[in-house]
Amino acid sequence: MAGTSSTGTSSTSGPWALVTGASAGIGAEFARQLAERGYGTVLVARRADRLQELALYLRERYTVDCLTVPLDLARTDSVAELESVLAEEKVEVEFLVNNAGYGVPGTFTQSDWPTHTDSLQVMLTGVCELTWRLLPGMQQRGRGYVVNVASLAGLVPGSARHTLYGATKAFLIRFSESLAAENTANGVKVSALCPGFTHSEFHDVIGTREQVGKMPAWLWMDAPEVVRYGIESVVRDDPRVIAIPGYANQTIAALARKLPYTLTQSMIRREARRWRAQD
């Protein structure tokens, strides 16, 4: 069983948010901004020490309850276990952020199949299962929010290396569109957040920090502005189902839609060679 830590979780009078991949970067920033809005926070990630440190900060800074759930979402039973923890703690999630994810470096056959299945479990299967388990409660209560953290990579043609990353993000975008359409009448709002290059630990984890460091500064955004845009996009009266933060990212996405595919594909392939690790 996963370890958990909480302070007065069953007595909270406010709503609850659950954030996966909450130990750093965009996930940690979602937790901070949602706590600032009065949400009790369920923090899910593998690194227990990071979660406990963040939970302590959120409790002291925003006076909200926190539940930390150190859990490896690559395990196929992890989401069912997480649901059991929520039931035991009597936590009803109103705001779900499916943020956990990572890229597998190299070409498709350079990694063994278990490495790929782990990434698909975290970024695709687990996202669908967790949403499936928590969505009925939101529907019954007539209120809820789901943010699937996708990527600009899901809106542009694919390129070599990190083969499954763009594909899974494209899936999350279409998945979010369908969920949004299905839940229009029952008070649940859904959005796919599609950031581009964002200052976080992501590129350190996948080993491309040196390459992406050469990208121009105007392509980059900070996590707080990305997350702020993501939250504001889904809580609007008319939610942005596909939320693309930043003028540069919006321009790139628009060009990908309007330019001939072969031209866009060529441009993406050329640029990808500049920031993705090579042999």
Can you walk through the features of this model?
It contains 10 helices and 10 strands. The chain is an alpha/beta fold and 279 residues long. It has a single domain, classed as NAD(P)-binding Rossmann-like Domain (Rossmann fold), CATH 3.40.50.720. The chain has an 8-stranded mixed beta sheet, sandwiched between helices. It has a two-stranded parallel ribbon with strand order 8-9. Helix 5 links the parallel strand 6 and strand 7. Helix 1 packs parallel to helix 2, helix 3 runs parallel beside helix 4 and helix 4 packs parallel to helix 5 (163-182). The relative contact order is 0.13.
**Relevant CATH superfamily:** NAD(P)-binding Rossmann-like Domain
Count of discrete structural domains:
1
Give the % helix: 40-55%
The level-1 CATH class: Alpha Beta
Pick out the low-confidence regions.
Answer: 6-12
- Trace the largest sheet across and list its strands: 1-4-3-2-5-6-7-10
Q: Distance between the terminal alpha carbons, to the nearest Å?
A: 39 Å
Strand content: 15-25%
How many helices?
10
| CATH-scheme architecture | 3-Layer(aba) Sandwich
Integer-rounded radius of gyration: 18 Å
Question: Main beta sheet: strand number and arrangement?
Answer: 8 strands, mixed
Give the helix/strand class. alpha/beta
Q: Give the total of beta strands.
A: 10
Mean pLDDT: 90
Helix and strand sequence: EEHEHEHEHEHEEHHEHEHH
Briefly note the CATH topology name: Rossmann fold
Q: Specify the overall morphology.
A: globular
